[in-house]
Design brief:
The protein is mainly alpha-helical. The protein has eleven helices and five strands, in the order ααβαβαβααααβααβα. The longest helix is centred in the last third of the chain and has 19 residues, at 155-173. It holds the Pfam family UvrD-helicase.
Length: 231
């Protein structure tokens, strides 16, 4: 296989071992390649167990690209490191921990809108459903709960809190989670269950994040929780 050629800056990023590191780069500068090479370097040069590595990207295409490269370069170990998106990580955690709603499933787009319209009817809301759902999504990604909105001094926030609350109740009754729940629920579990958090902190001793600047508040908070013991 053709040897990967790294420039001095890329080599510095790949060979870094302990402690936080930020890599600043422009589009097309080989970020995904560097992240992949760093995973390989940690395993082959520093003897890190691949099961203790977590690599997060924002696109499924990048996930598949990294996994493919690892499988070609690491004999028998290419599939042991966890490479996934933030939401895929959340889904794995909910499944592994037996999320309290037994047999939950991810709601489909059309089904989600139908449920949300039911929530709007219960809350007596007449606005555009997609706009309200988008506002709730933004709130959840900023770790704002229905009760937080209820305490707001803004009338529009108080109104939104009602449909937000109804929507959450309807999902729970139907044993459904939406895309935002794949982050919000694991975050809540980590905050409420110290033993569970400690397990994942112990497991993920090296965390690599591609395109970190695109992370939402809840993504950053999840990363902070997971990395507390290995900084």
């Amino acid at each position: 296989m053709k040897e990967i050629q790294l420039n001095p800056q890329q080599l510095e990023a790949v060979s870094h071992k302990d402690g936080p590191m930020v890599v600043l780069s422009v589009v097309g500068s080989g970020k995904t390649m560097v992240l992949t090479e760093r995973i390989i370097h940690l395993i082959e040069e520093y003897g890190i167990n691949p099961t203790n590595l977590l690599a997060i990207t924002f696109a499924k295409k990048a996930v598949l690209e990294i996994i493919s490269r690892l499988e070609k370069r690491l004999s028998g170990n290419g599939d042991k490191a966890i490479v996934c998106t933030f939401h895929s990580l959340g889904y794995r955690i909910l499944r592994a921990e037996g999320y309290p709603i037994n047999g939950f499933r991810l709601v489909h787009n059309g089904e989600q809108m139908n449920i949300f319209r039911q929530a709007m009817d219960k809350a007596d809301m007449k606005e555009e459903p997609s706009l309200l759902l988008s506002r709730i999504s933004l709130a959840k990604n900023d770790l704002i709960s229905p009760s937080d909105l209820e305490q707001s001094s803004k009338p529009e926030d108080k109104k939104l809190s009602k449909v937000y609350h109804c929507y959450e109740l309807l999902k729970r009754r139907k044993r459904l989670v939406d895309f935002d729940d794949l982050l919000y629920l694991p975050y809540q579990l980590f905050r409420e269950d110290k033993g569970m958090l400690e397990y994942y902190q112990s497991r993920f001793q090296h965390i690599l994040v591609d395109e970190f600047q695109d992370s939402s508040k809840i993504m950053v908070e999840i990363l902070k929780l997971l990395s507390q013991t290995h900084q």
